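Ex. 9. Protein: Outer membrane lipoprotein Blc.
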Amino acid sequence: MIRIMLIAGAAVSALAGSASLAGTDRYRDTETQMSVVQNLDVDRYMGTWYEIARFPNRFEQGCEGVTADYARTGDGEISVINTCRKGAPDGPIERAEGEAEVVAPGRLKVSFVPWLPFARGDYWVLHIDPAYSVAVVGEPSGKTGWILARSPQISSAKRAEAEAELERNGYDPTQLRDVAHR
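Predicted structure tokens for Outer membrane lipoprotein Blc:
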């Protein structure tokens, strides 16, 4: 079964942001301008990323142990393989294969249905640490967002840094859901 898994200005107080988002499927104040990593080294971004936390979304419902694998293809595109373990970190594996393309610095378009050109989602890299070991990804509508890392766990300092970056981009980090890994 193909499942879409997208994995990608004005300051607003967390309280005001939470109140304005209550009862919606959006996790960010869309009036806050988003900033992306302008000097993203796409080749260093390739490889495996573990999903540390995400904003709840329908296409990852029941997923634990989530990883995303990015690789350059021969035609200059980027292949994306998202892996979900259903129900638990050692649950049955579901995979979704897609492709991505860089459309601007720090901005990619991702599709898990390549034959539908309009079924491409925004994937914006909002932050990456200098070692390319922790990344923060979001998209303008605020319906999705993730904290990713090269390992299944990160330090509390790295987590706080990632959450602060989400907040700078209008997200309400209190709505994040941690992802279990084995």
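Check your answer against this statement. The chain has a mean pLDDT of 86.
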